[in-house]
Design a protein that fits this description.
mainly alpha, 4-stranded antiparallel β-sheet, 3-stranded antiparallel β-sheet, 88 helices, 1481 residues
């Protein structure tokens, strides 16, 4: 196979490897449908048509896997880049994905493919190239081989390629460092780091520190920066500490990545990135020591400390990161008032009640040290919860009187501070008074006035603004108490426009008059509408002001004209009277004239006054005032002057008319000719003086004074004038008033109208109006009297009037029915039809009169209607019709006869009328009476005029009902419009099948024809008709009839046409089953399957019939026709009839594997098969079925349980399986499964296996299980085993206690079983000196010398020398403690030597710095080329540092305390120390 890219020009030949592929022996002719290269895992997947999967190693073409993954042929396949595997689809549409198990493939190749000689190389190559797990041992072997051969670069490469990290340990680093480098070449440790960096990996923590340490010593910033940017180093706190002397920025980056919060904050502070501190702290959720940080920042950068403190106090979640009191203390200790103020202003901006003390402290500090700042803070109005009394005192001491007022509440304090009002702005004082109680404010205003009259302006301003709260009356009383009219004037003048208090307005008028401001007095009196006019009027009259204009305005506005006139007349102010009526208010002239008349003023003055006023004086009130005093003639010159000016005022002309009437200056002519006077007023004035003049005045109004006219004529007996006026007026309303029955004068008026007024009239409209009035008044007798005089006894002008004749007859109909017949005969110019309708109607019922009118008017049809409907005389109607010979009359007669049920007579009348209009009613009546012979005659007549389908249809029906089938057949074959279908259906419903058959044949309705044949028992003809109809319903009807008649041959022919339609199939089956014809039904369906119209429903229903009647044929039928069946429906039938094996088969083929599995378990005696069940379980979707299957196998097939579990091991919850089996009490039964599942290290599985091992006392297996898998309740197991009768079980208990760091319990248990080695190893592993020394004392107390020496050796690092030596000396075990003593002396000697060497080296370095302080030369620079990834770093072949505190002696390394490693206790004896061991062991 070719696994490389195509070869290009100049490129080496592509890599090729060939191998022959062996197909499985089961399908030797199988072939591949797809091959997919996995670049992720280095293998090639090949999928074959038969469903086999092959996996090949890409480098050697070795076949690694061959297995069948699908029982159905593969349709298509493709590679999957995400998983590194492939995906394929089989013929059934199932999609399957395949990928490499990265955790198991290496072990699989190494251990399972034993037939491959190169399996180890393949496994190692895959693990190395693609980072697969499972090859740790191979990596270690390769590494050891390369390292032992001196090939350090390949050894480093192996370490870099080992993804598990087992070759990236401190031991490996020390191993490279322990090798001395070859001169001229890179040192092994440098090669190691270079290879690690070259392979693109990231160094771990220890590697990063070892690499960076020499770089920092050489100040190579660029290398550290490069590695950090490329993310080559693992960032740890130690690495940051190492880099920090080189560059704080690098250290900060490392600390950030390593999440060393405290040092990150310290670096931010050192680099002045204070704003980053809080952002970082909030991000990581770290609580730093902000107090110390603030103190340090305040020393170096107060501004930054201030901002930082603000940020600390302004936390996003509302919880400050530091107490604000601590911040204040820190800043004020350094006397940082300005910074403290800024911080508190920011921290206290929320103005919460719990901040009251801090608000007070902030204001107090600034008031005492910086009053201007305190004032600015107070002006911002930020705080409201501080101690206001205390702050007020401080403000007063600081001279901030306004702010002192703001904070004081006590009245005494307020009054004291208010004495300094001269130092306060008026605006402030005005604003401040708004917060004072009204009583206190008034007291303060009084004190201000009393203390200094210069405060008047401020007091007035305050009073103006807050008069509503204090009370305007109290303020005025205060000003008056100090005799300050100016105060009252200015105060009330400001509030006057908004005040509605009469007292305020009066006081203002009073104060203005006292201050001599007459213009303001006049203005207020003129413009104000609030003051009490009586009070002000009396004040102004008593004041006797030189200018009476204010009094004039008050009296004019409020209606005191008489008093004003009297005041001015008596005080001889006649000029002001004329000024008032001429210039001020001429409309009050009538009142002034009236008052002057009452005061007996001269007529000349009054006439002169009127002449000056001229037309400006209103006429109506003037005439009323003068007429009231009987001095109307006084106005005649002035009135005539106004008439001469052309004034048309009705009141003017009324006054002149009254004067003319009283003086008898031809009043009747004036009343008839003048157009401007008011008729009602003048007529009323004349009623008592002259009724004729009143009638003249009222008649002149023509309508507006009708009632007054009627009243005056009634009272004075002027009925003739009234009657003439009524006829001329033609007013229905006036007629209604006069003709009212309550009017006692009505008869008199009627007599005058009938005898005088109406005979005199020649106007038809007047006559008509009068008649209408009588009609409206419901006076029929009077109306008849009136009309007879007009129509019968008057001239021809009104005698032939149609309306009057109509009215006369109608009135007689209503009032005097006896006269109606006479009027009908005598009169001939009336509206006969309308009058006849009225006569016939309710409530008159004058039928004979109406009949006479219609007859006289030759309206025969209407006359016939009256005879039939009203008089109800059919005999007279027949005579009248015979005499008239009118078709219309015969029609009405026929209709009446039809309504009376005389159907035959009605048909005769209709025939005489030759009118077929009512053929619908005639048809219904004739059919109801079954008079079909008469109906035939009528319909034949009707066809001549009415071309209607109904007529022809009913004629066909009538022929059928009279059994005239020949005539019917002749008619339907000819031209007609009959609805033959409807008639046929009607006859079919009435079981007239022969007639219906003729009709259906005529219209070729084969469906109904077939039905008719069926009803007549003609089954063969019915089948022939059904074939022509080819209709499902028809076939169903024919089939049903044939089945019921047991004509199965005809039934089968019909059934074959029915079963091809799935919708009708079930109904047909039901019919056959009801009759018990099962064999015929099965035969019918079986025959239908061979037709081209066979469908799924036929197959399904036949199968269902097999389930019912022939189950032995069911399985074969299902297998032959699986894909042609409605499987869900068939499954239901199988379940109803208990065919469970068939149901399982159908469930499987329908991919309902869940139901198949449940059915097999529920009906296992007939449906269960182990292999089939396992195959089904692989495809179920409901995981609960797995667990039900486990219970099923436990109950019915326990020996196959492991086989089941192995089949579903990857799909079940192992813990649940174990719990389920444990509950059943059969854990041992599934031990193979549990061992296989234990690789997942699940607690429940581990505990179950351990329980089985404990019960079987298999301690070796139990120890191995505990060592390999630690996920279980270890303490419970230990407690259970510590009292076990087997020692090995108790040792396991001690081991578990040790693993869980319960060292004391483990040691006690080991001592109890005398397992002293276990006890010493546990004590050493605990790292607890007390446990080790306690165990040592136990050995001493029990005189176990060998154990004592072994414990000193094993627990050397934990036992204090003084304790060990003291115990040995006291118990006489010094010889056994001697090796321990020698080792202790050697350790301390080595430390002293190392300290001495370090001191000497430091002195040499100081001496060297003195000699060349500016020169730096490395101790040694290796002449090697640059290594990849290391830049110009030279780690070189410098002398190696001593390993673990030891010194190189005798060709080996001397180890100090670590030399005595924990292990089996080995007793030291004299002579064991060699000559070259330097006092060591």
């Amino acid at each position: 196979m070719d696994v490389s890219a195509p070869r290009g020009e100049g490129l080496p030949p592509p890599f090729k490897v060939n191998a022959e592929i062996q197909m499985p022996p089961e399908v030797p002719t199988d072939f591949a449908v797809g091959m997919h290269l996995s670049e992720k895992h280095g293998v090639v997947f090949m999928v074959t048509k038969a469903g086999y999967l092959f996996v090949f190693d890409v480098a050697t073409a070795t076949m690694l896997v061959r297995t069948r993954v699908s029982q159905d042929p593969i349709f298509i396949s493709t590679g999957s880049k995400s998983s590194g595997g492939c995906i394929f689809v089989n013929r059934k549409g199932a999609v399957t994905t395949v990928k490499v198990n990265e955790q198991a493939i290496v072990n699989y190749i190494s251990n399972k493919l034993v037939h491959l000689p190169n399996r180890q190389d393949i496994a190692f190559t895959l693990a190395r190239r693609f980072g697969l797990a499972g090859a740790n041992e191979l990596f270690q072997q390769q590494f050891a081989r390369y390292f032992a051969s001196g090939d350090y670069k390949n050894a480093a490469t192996i370490a870099a390629q080992c993804k598990s990290g087992i070759l990236r340990t401190p031991e490996v680093i020390n191993q490279f460092k322990s090798v001395a480098g070859t001169p001229g070449q890179a040192s092994p440790i440098l090669t190691y780091f270079s290879v690690l960096l070259e392979h693109g990996g990231k160094l771990n923590g220890l590697e990063s520190i070892e690499l960076v340490r020499p770089v920092v010593q050489q100040q190579r910033r660029e290398l550290v920066e490069k590695w950090l940017k490329e993310d080559k180093l693992e960032c740890t706190e130690e690495l940051g500490d190492l880099v920090k002397p080189l560059d704080t920025r690098f250290a900060l980056s490392i600390y950030l990545r390593a999440s060393v919060h405290q040092k990150v904050i310290a670096c931010f502070a050192e680099t002045a990135q204070y704003d980053q501190i809080l952002a970082y702290v909030k991000k990581v959720g770290y609580q730093a020591d902000y107090t110390q940080l603030l103190q340090q920042m305040l020393m170096s950068n107060p501004e930054a400390a201030t901002n930082f403190a603000k940020n600390l106090l302004d936390s996003a979640n509302g919880q400050p990161l530091i107490d604000v009191n601590v911040v204040v203390k820190i800043f004020m200790e350094q006397n940082r008032l300005q910074e403290t103020t800024a911080i508190l202003l920011e921290a206290l901006k929320a103005n919460r009640p719990d901040q009251a003390a801090l608000q007070t402290q902030l204001l107090a500090m600034n008031l005492q040290q910086a009053p201007k700042v305190a004032e600015a803070i107070l002006q911002m109005n930020m705080f409201t919860h501080y101690d206001r009394a205390y702050i007020g005192q401080l403000c007063e001491k600081a001279g901030l009187m306004q702010w002192a007022l703001e904070h004081y509440q006590d009245a005494a304090d307020l009054k004291r501070v208010m004495l300094h009002a001269h130092s306060m702005s008026p605006e402030f004082l005005v604003s401040y008074f708004s917060r004072m109680p009204p009583g206190t404010a008034l007291e303060c205003l009084t004190d201000l006035m009393r203390h200094n009259r210069q405060n008047l302006q401020v007091v007035v301003q305050v009073a103006i603004k807050y008069h509503e709260q204090i009370g305007a009356g109290k303020i005025v009383k205060m000003f008056e108490g100090f005799g300050s009219n100016e105060g009252v004037f200015y105060f009330l003048g400001a509030i006057l426009s908004s005040s509605t208090d009469p007292e305020v307005h009066f006081k203002y008028i009073q104060a203005a008059s006292r201050c001599g401001n007459m213009q303001e007095v006049e203005r207020v009196c003129r413009e104000s509408t609030v003051y009490d006019p009586v009070t002000v009027k009396d004040f102004l009259k008593d004041a006797k002001l030189p200018d009476p204009r204010p009094l004039i305005y008050v009296c004019d506005l409020h209606g005191y004209v008489n008093e004003l006139t009297e005041y001015l007349y008596k005080n001889s102010l006649m000029k002001y009277i004329e000024v008032y009526v001429v210039k001020v208010n001429p409309t009050q002239c009538p009142g002034v004239i009236g008052a002057l008349i009452d005061l007996d003023c001269s007529e000349d003055f009054m006439k002169n006054l009127l002449q000056n006023v001229r037309a400006a004086c209103p006429i109506e009130p003037l005439a009323a005032e003068v007429e009231k005093r009987n001095r109307l003639r006084l106005l005649l010159p002035w009135l005539e002057a106004r008439v001469a000016e052309g004034n048309q005022d009705p009141f003017l002309h009324n006054a002149i008319a009254k004067i003319y009437i009283d003086t008898n200056r031809d009043p009747e002519t004036f009343l008839k000719t003048n157009q401007f006077y008011d008729s009602a007023v003048v007529g009323k004035y004349c009623e008592d003086r002259d009724p004729h003049l009143a009638y003249t005045a009222y008649k002149r109004s023509w309508g507006s004074c009708d009632e007054q006219l009627v009243s005056v004529t009634n009272r004075n007996g002027l009925f003739r004038l009234q009657a003439r006026y009524l006829v001329e007026r033609q007013s229905p309303e006036l007629w209604a008033l006069v003709l009212d029955p309550e009017n006692q004068h009505r008869r008199n008026v009627i007599d005058q109208v009938v005898s005088t007024a109406l005979p005199e009239s020649t106007n038809a409209e007047e006559v008509s109006a009068t008649v209408k009035a009588f009609i409206a008044a419901d006076m029929p007798n009077e109306l008849i009297e009136l009309l007879e005089k007009i129509v019968l006894h008057k001239s021809a002008d009104f005698g032939k009037n149609r309306n009057l004749q109509n009215l006369l007859i109608l009135t007689a109909i209503k009032a005097d029915k006896a006269r109606v017949m006479d009027y009908i005969n005598r009169l001939d110019n009336y509206d006969g039809p309308e009058i006849a309708k009225i006569a016939v109607g309710e409530p008159y019922r004058l039928y004979e009169e109406a009949f006479l009118i219609y007859k006289k008017q030759n309206l025969n049809a209407e006359a016939m209607e009256v005879l039939l409907t009203n008089i109800e005389s059919v005999e007279r109607a027949q005579e009248f019709a015979a005499r008239c010979g009118d078709n219309n009359v015969w029609y009405k007669l026929g209709k009446a006869q039809l309504e009376n049920g005389q159907v035959s007579e009605a048909i005769d009348s209709y025939l005489k009328a030759e009118d077929a209009t009512d053929y619908n009613e005639v048809i219904q009546a004739a059919e109801r009476e079954e008079l079909f012979d008469d109906l035939v005659r009528y319909l034949l007549m009707a066809r001549k005029s009415a071309k209607d389908q109904i007529v022809d249809t009913e004629l066909v029906y009538s022929y059928a009902k009279t059994e005239a089938l020949g005539a019917m057949e002749e008619f339907v074959t000819g031209t007609n419009t009959a609805n033959v279908q409807a008639v046929g259906d009607r006859l079919y419903d009435e079981q007239a099948f022969k007639a219906a058959k003729i009709l259906y044949q005529s219209i070729h309705n084969n469906s109904k024809l077939a039905s008719t044949h069926v009803m007549l028992g003609e089954y063969t003809q019915a089948v022939d008709a059904a074939k022509k109809a080819n209709n499902s319903l028809t076939w169903k009807e024919v089939n049903l009839a044939c089945v019921q008649a047991k004509q199965f041959k005809c039934a089968e022919i019909a059934g074959m046409y029915i079963i091809r339609h799935p919708d009708h199939l079930e109904e047909l089956i039901t019919q056959y089953e009801k009759g018990g014809h099962f064999e015929e039904l099965i035969g019918l369906l079986d025959s239908g399957l061979s037709s081209e119209h066979a469908h799924v429903g036929m197959y399904t229903e036949l199968a269902i019939l097999y389930t019912k009647y022939k189950p032995e044929k069911l399985m074969d039928f299902i297998k032959l026709n699986t894909h042609k069946l409605n499987i869900p429906k068939l499954i239901q039938a199988c379940e109803r009839h208990y065919h469970w094996e068939h149901a399982v088969f159908l469930y499987t083929h329908y991919d309902e594997f869940d139901q198949a599995a449940n059915t097999m378990m529920a009906h296992s005696p007939v449906a269960f098969a182990h292999d089939q069940f396992l195959m089904i379980l692989q495809k179920v979707s409901n995981l609960e079925i797995y667990y039900r299957a486990i219970n099923f196998y436990l109950e019915e097939n326990p020996m196959q349980l492991n086989s089941l579990l192995n089949a579903i091991i990857s799909k079940v919850d192992h813990a649940r399986v174990v719990q389920q089996v444990k509950k059943a009490g059969h854990l041992a039964l599934i031990m193979p499964y549990m061992k296989q599942a234990q690789t997942h290290n699940i607690a429940a599985v581990n505990e179950a296996i351990n329980e089985v091992f404990v019960e079987g006392e298999q301690y070796e297996e139990l120890r191995q299980s505990i060592s390999d898998f630690d996920n279980f309740d270890q303490i419970t197991l230990a407690q259970r085993l510590e009292k076990h009768e087997l020692v090995e079980m108790r040792r396991i208990s001690a081991l578990v206690y040790k693993k869980n760091k319960r060292y004391k319990q483990s040691i006690d248990l080991s001592k109890q079983d005398k397992m002293y080695k276990d006890a010493m190893e546990t004590a050493f592993e605990s790292g607890n000196p007390e446990l080790a020394e306690s165990l040592l004392r136990y050995f001493v107390d029990n005189d176990m010398k060998e154990c004592f020496a072994a414990c000193l050796y094993t627990c050397y690092d934990l036992i204090r020398p003084d304790v060990g030596l003291e115990l040995a000396w006291r118990k006489g075990m010094t010889d056994f403690a001697m090796p321990f003593l020698i080792q202790v002396l050697r350790e301390y000697t080595s430390r002293v030597d190392a300290l001495d060497k370090k001191t000497q080296k430091k002195e040499e370095e100081q001496q060297k710095e003195k000699s060349a302080s500016n020169d730096f030369v490395p101790d040694y620079m290796a002449p090697v080329a640059m290594m990849p990834g290391l830049g110009n770093l030279a780690i070189g072949n410098a002398p190696m540092a001593p390993q673990m505190g030891g010194a190189q002696m005798g060709g080996g390394f001397m180890q100090a305390p670590g030399m005595m490693q924990a292990g089996p206790p080995t007793m030291m004896t004299p002579g064991m120390m060699g000559p070259g061991m330097g006092g060591g062991f």
